[in-house]
Amino acid sequence: MPASLPLLKTICRVAAGLLTLGTLALGTLALGTLALGVLSVSAQEASVRVPNFWDPKAVHDRPNAIPDKIQFLATDGYPPFVFRDQHGRLTGFNVDLARALCQELGSSCALRIKDFEVLLPALDEEEGDAIISGLSRSLPSTRRLNFTEDYLKLPARFVVRAYNASDFNEQALTGKRIAVEAGSRYEAFAKRFFPDAEIISLETAEATREAVKGGSADALFGDGLNLSFWLPSEAADGCCAFAGGPWLEPGYFDEGMAIATRQDDPERAAALTYALRQLHQKGIYRELYLRYFPMSFF
Question: Residue 100 — φ and ψ, nearest 5°?
Fold first, then answer.
């Protein structure tokens, strides 16, 4: 996949097939005029592992420079992050997160939808103040930008047949048949760090899922987020489950999702980072995570 595409295009392929989208359109959503509301959190809460990317004991002072307004830029069509529901309304994890950030800062906000290819030009031309669209830090064109701290990490996970999940030991892989997508970072990692396993490289991520479902592989090693939407789907048919924990090894799976601002606007990035920490401490981040990720990928 070309490096110029957003992280969201890589991580939402399965989710896009499981959510029904309305007609997509370009436009601007005024966030400051909408109430965050009470987020519905079901009885699953106790059993879902919500990640924590911030030190709960750290004390952070509110920045002196808080922007009066923030115009977010994003690309839609990437459930569960930014998409349109069956009524055509813009929704998603990033949409609600942006709204919550604005409420925490007391800033008026809006979200403008753009094609991904014009997000950076739009930011440079001050059509918006911050990009919340899974923009990769590692691209040559983005290294000049300011980024907040990550608000979501994207771990690798093992998936096995459901009846084997409790017995699977990710530290004892000798002779295990591990399915991975050919040419992916999951394949590169598995070949380097699981030398005693039999690595089965398949053409697509879908093929790895079918391999573990059908039993031709003992496990698959792949993108935890996409797998969290596949596991409860009709396609999986209850076959499989996560096993072991999340893998976030530097150089492979450590790049997360963050908000980008212009090079000359570090104050806005600092204010957004402060707000992200506050949302975590107040439990708002947890509520958002439970709303959009009913099966945790951590």
Answer: -65, -40
- The two beta strands, 69-74 and 108-113, are parallel
- Rounded to whole angstroms, how far apart are CA atoms 193 and 170? 11
Separation CA 256–CA 151 (nearest Å): 7
How is residue 80 annotated by DSSP? Answer: T
Least confident range from 11-20, 61-70, 256-265, 268-277: namely 11-20
The 10s digit of each residue's pLDDT in 96-145 is 999 999 999 999 999 999 999 999 999 999 999 999 998 888 888 888 99
- Express each pLDDT in 255-296 by its tens digit: 899 999 999 999 999 999 999 999 999 999 999 999 999 899
Q: Which residues contact 171 (CB under 8 A, 6 or more apart)?
A: none
Tens digit of each residue's pLDDT (9 = 90 or more) over 202-249: 999 999 999 999 999 999 999 999 999 999 999 999 999 999 999 999
Cis check for the bond before 63: say yes or no (omega within 30 of 0).
Answer: no
3-state DSSP helix/strand/coil % of the chain, to nearest 5: 30, 20, 50
Give yes or no for a contact between 89 and 27, defined as CB atoms under 8 angstroms apart. Answer: no
Q: Which residues of 111-144 are buried (b: 16+ CB within 10 A; e: fewer)?
A: bbbbebeebbebbeeeebbbbbbbbbeeeeeeee
Distance from the first to the final alpha carbon of the chain: 25
CA atoms within 13 A on the CB side of 288: 25
Exposure string over 170-193, b if 16+ CB within 10 A, otherwise e: beebeebbbbbbeebbbbebbeee
pLDDT band with cut points at 50, 70 and 90 for residue 176: very high
pTM: 0.83
Strands 177-181 and 130-131: unpaired
Q: If 0-12 CB within 10 Å is exposed, 13-18 middle and 19+ buried, where does residue 83 land?
A: buried
